[in-house]
Structures are given as structure tokens and as C-alpha cells.
Amino acid sequence: MAGHTEILDSPHQLPAVSSPAPPPAPRTIDAGLPPAVQKIVNSHLVIWVVILSFGPLGLPLIWLSPKYALWSKILVSVLTIGVTIVLPIAITLYCTQFLVQPVLEAMQQANAAGGAH
Fold this sequence. Notes:
- Keywords: Membrane, Transmembrane, Transmembrane helix.
- The chain crosses the membrane at residues 45-64, 76-100.
- Residues 1-28 are annotated as: Disordered.
- This protein has helices at 35-41, 44-54, 59-64, 70-112.
- It is mainly alpha-helical.
- It has a domain at 35-115.
């Protein structure tokens, strides 16, 4: 039946056409957060005070904040974790080199000289 066209006689024979669906609402991370948390996440001052006070424990706030671009979130995360890891190691090495090592050398010299009397 190639080339056959069917003619519909009444409107109730027309295929059902649904209205177009509305566009989906934009999805944001803070959409499900309580209002109090949204205020905290949107405050630059609170975010930076928490990060500077508690280090990596403040990183979720910056990741939930819509005010920061992805590159800045990554940069702040890397710097915060780097300082959290590198700074204690550097302080430990410094203290070992300049505080503990001289005491150990003095003890070795005292033992070599006959010890304490």
C-alpha cells in the first residue's frame, strides 16, 4: 500500500498530542540545603574563617558554595591540603635539625668524655 493516505473523518480520530514538557529546573548543589546552611555557604567571610581555622574541615563549604569557580575550588583545596601536610613535616624536620640534633650531639660528647659524674 505504498502511497496510500488515510483521511480522518472526525477530530476524535486524531492522534493525541501532549504539550511540550517544561524545561528541567537548573540543578544546583545548594538546592537541598536548609536556609541556615545556604547562608553560611554563601558567605565568603564564614568560609575563609572556617578554612583558616580548621583547614581541610572547611573544604566542603567551599565546594558547596556557588560563588566560587571550579578552578578556584581546586586551587584552594590543593593549597589547603598541601599546607596541612607539608607544614607539619617541615616543622618536624626543622625541630629535628636545629633543636634535637644539638642535644643528641652534646649527649654523645658527654658520654665520650666519660659521662656525667
